[in-house]
Amino acid sequence: MIRFENVTKFYARTPRPALDDVSIEIGRGEFVFLVGASGSGKTSCISLVQREERPSAGKVFVAGRDLSSMSAWKVPEHRRKLGVVFQDFRLLPDKTVYENVAFALQVIGKKRHTIRLAVPEVLEMVGLAGKEKRRPHELSGGEQQRVAIARAYVNRPPILLADEPTGNLDPTTSLGIMRLLDQINLTGTTVVMATHDEEIVNQWRKRVIELDEGVVVRDQPEGIYDSSRPARGELTVSEA
């Protein structure tokens, strides 16, 4: 579904590459955590998958298409196949919950009757039924993130990218958002989540890809946030 082949990415006036010869492959229907310190390259990976950036070297493939050589006029079509969720929600403040989600369908030319059916369905799925007429400032942070997820998922994209989606939320709210992303993944959507949320990673035990200064240093199935120490509740050899 997503494949990086020896991808290196430099940014202007930065001598060290943001990504350095990265090769990873993420299959259809997987749930993958991208972890690592700030500046490790997580956001660069997500930007490359969206085709917001191009690699300095190497190739990026999404659903079998080489993004490195994709024509500019095909990029909007490519992005329609992606749902993207951000840490800061990025909702339209002057629009209602319903209008924020509907907007994602309007921009790709969906008919009104399709929108009228799809939006209430996805709002119910994310737990926001009855709040269609509220505006973002009338919602909690967790509710705003649920709107953002509904907007990202309403077109049923095969891939959902989440860049620090729990970064501004408390642990209980974060758990609810994680359950929602897991539910979306169970429908067959590939989910790639960049995160610093150690508790979430350790609890959910999905595949973990760790980046350090642009290099993949770990790719672990059912991994934890920090492989150098046991997850909470586990004993080291010396403790046992």
Automatic annotation (TrEMBL):
Any one of the GO BP annotations: cell division
Domain of life: Bacteria
A Pfam family hit: ABC_tran
Gene Ontology molecular function: ATP binding; ATP hydrolysis activity; transmembrane transporter activity
Subcellular location: Cell membrane
Domain ABC transporter: 2-238
PROSITE patterns (UniProt xref): ABC_TRANSPORTER_1, ABC_TRANSPORTER_2
Record key words, sorted: ATP-binding, Cell cycle, Cell division, Cell membrane, Membrane, Nucleotide-binding
SUPFAM superfamilies reported in the protein's UniProt record: P-loop containing nucleoside triphosphate hydrolases
GO CC annotation: plasma membrane
Recorded topology in the membrane: Peripheral membrane protein
Record note on quaternary structure: Homodimer. Forms a membrane-associated complex with FtsX.
Record family assignment: Belongs to the ABC transporter superfamily.
Function, in words: Part of the ABC transporter FtsEX involved in cellular division. Has ATPase activity.
Protein name as annotated: Cell division ATP-binding protein FtsE
Source species: Sediminihabitans luteus
